[in-house]
Amino acid sequence: MAHPASTPTHRTVRVGDIDMHITEQGEGDPVVLCHGFPGLGYSWRHQLRALSAAGYRAIAPDMRGYGRTDAPSDPRAYDRRHTVDDMVGLLDALGIEQAVFSGHDFGAHLTWDLANWASERVRALKQLSVPRMPRMPIRPSIGFRYLASQHFVHLHYFQEHGPADRELGDDPKASLAKIFYALSGANRYLDCWDYPSEGNGYLDVLPESPALPWSWLSEDEFDYYVQEYARTGFTGGLNWYRAEDYVWDQNEDQHDRPITVPTTFIAGSKDPVLEMLGDKPLEAMSALVPGLTSTHIIPGVGHFVQMEAAEQVNSAMLEFLAELD
C-alpha cells in the first residue's frame, strides 16, 4: 500500500565510541541500509524513497569512516568487533529491537557477518553485489600480495597507508568519476588487470570517465559525493580494506556458520565482483545461506546496482519484504 510522501531527515547519534550520521525516511518496520566503498548513506537515496513510500522506516548511515560519521585513524577500529558494535549500537540508539539489513560492497561483507555475530538483531538480509563466500584459507593480505605479483590489484595497493590516500585525495572529483565509471556496467573493470602493480596507482589503471550526467548519476548527485570526499578524504573508507586481516582473524569460528534468516541477493551481471569470482560463489551460497529465498542478477548492470538499476532493485527489495509480512 502506498503511503504519503515523506522527506528524508538527518541526525547524528552516539554509537559506542563514534558519532554516526544517519538519514531516515518513512515510518514502519525498520530497514537499515549499509553502503560500501566509495559510498555514503546517500548511495541509498533511491531506496530510501521507495521503502518509505511502501510503509517502511528506511535508515541509511554514513558508515564508520565515511561522510559525516567519525573516522578513526587506526585500521584496527574497523575490525569486525567495532563494525558489528556499530550496527547493534545504532539499533539500541534508535530503540529498535530487530531490523532487516541490506548491505552493498563492504556493507554486505559486514551484514553477512552480522547475521551470525548478532543474530537476534537481524530479521532478514537484502544483500547487494557481494555474495556470501567460504572463508579464505589464507590471510587476506597474503592473497592480495600474491595476486599483485601477477597484475595490479587495488585490494593490495590499498593496504599501505599513504599512497592511495594521497592519490585519491589529491583530486576527489577526478577520482570518484573514474571509480564510479570503471565499476559501472559501461566498462569492463577487469581490464585493469592488464597493468602491472609496479609503478602504477589505482587511477593509472582506470579508464577516463565520460562527462556527466550519466543515465544513473546526475551532476548534482555526483557533486554531493565530491563535496563530502573533498572534506573528509578517503582514508576512512580505505581503512575497511586495511582491517581485512583483523576481520579474518575474528571470524575464525563464525564465518562458515550457515545463515538461516530469510535472504535475497541482488547484483548486476557486469559487476566486477561476479566477473572476478565466476559462478561458483553463487552456487555455494545455497549451502552457506540456507535462508536464501531469491537471487536477482540484473543484465548489463555493474557494481553500483542500487543506483544503476534503482527501479529493479527497489522492486526486488519490496517483493522480498512483502513476503516477510
In short:
The chain is 40% helix and 16% strand.
Chart the SSEs and their pairings.
Blueprint: E1 9-15, E2 18-25, E3 29-34, H1 45-53, E4 56-61, H2 80-94, E5 99-104, H3 106-117, E6 122-128, H4 140-148, H5 154-157, H6 163-170, H7 172-182, H8 219-232, H9 235-242, H10 244-250, E7 263-268, H11 272-277, H12 280-288, E8 292-298, H13 305-308, H14 310-324
Parallel strand pairs: 3-4, 3-5, 5-6, 6-7, 7-8
Antiparallel strand pairs: 1-2, 2-4
Report the structural category: alpha/beta
Name the CATH superfamily classification: Alpha/Beta hydrolase fold, catalytic domain
Round the Cα radius of gyration to an integer and report it. Answer: 18 Å
> Helical element count?
14
Shape: globular
CATH class: Alpha Beta
- Which sequence of strands runs across the widest sheet? 1-2-4-3-5-6-7-8
Under the CATH scheme, the architecture is 3-Layer(aba) Sandwich
CATH topology: Rossmann fold
What is the residue-averaged pLDDT? 95
Biggest sheet features: 8 strands, mixed
Number of DSSP strand runs: 8
Low-confidence stretches: none
Which percent range describes the beta-strand content? 15-25%
Helix content: 40-55%
